Amino acid sequence: MRELRSVREDHGRGNQQIETANPLMVERAPAVDQTRVMRMLRITIAETVSEQRWTLEGRLVQPWISELESTWRKTENARRERKCVVDLKGVTSIDKNGENALAALSKEGAELIATGCYTRHLVYKIKEKNRIVSS
């Protein structure tokens, strides 16, 4: 059994203390709250005069896709005449239904922003598909 050690800073003093973890407590399941957060989708909408920015964090899978689509419909009037940006940087996974939902948002004028390799590829495919359809 290996010993786990962590460094803890003494707040405000800059001193570091090394504490040894109890070997019996090393392997444990994450807290219930941590588990739930990882399985959800957080939707944050920030509005300015010229833009509505949606920040998505978590998993873009059912049942959260239904919530995303419902929120999209509810904010349609507030979105008129403004640029809409959907930031996908915090999305951890997307299933086929999530891909379809993003394609629908893009088709309605949302600009999709992505950073991860898979998510960037997905956004590229959606843009190409929309370009071909509109030609």
- Classify the fold: give the CATH topology: Transcription Regulator spoIIAA
Query: How would you describe the shape?
Result: globular
Give helix and strand order, one letter per element, not per position. Answer: EEHEEHHEHEH
| Unreliable stretches covering 5 or more consecutive residues | 1-11, 15-32, 34-38
Cα-atom radius of gyration: 21 Å
**What is the top-level CATH class?**
Alpha Beta
- Which structural class fits the helix and strand makeup? alpha/beta
Compute the separation of the termini in Å.
64 Å
Judging by the overall fold, what is the CATH architecture? 2-Layer Sandwich
**How many helix segments?**
5
Describe the sheet with the most strands.
4 strands, mixed
What is the average of the pLDDT values? 77
Query: In percent, how helical is the residue content?
Result: 25-40%
Count the domains.
1
What is the assigned CATH homologous superfamily? STAS domain
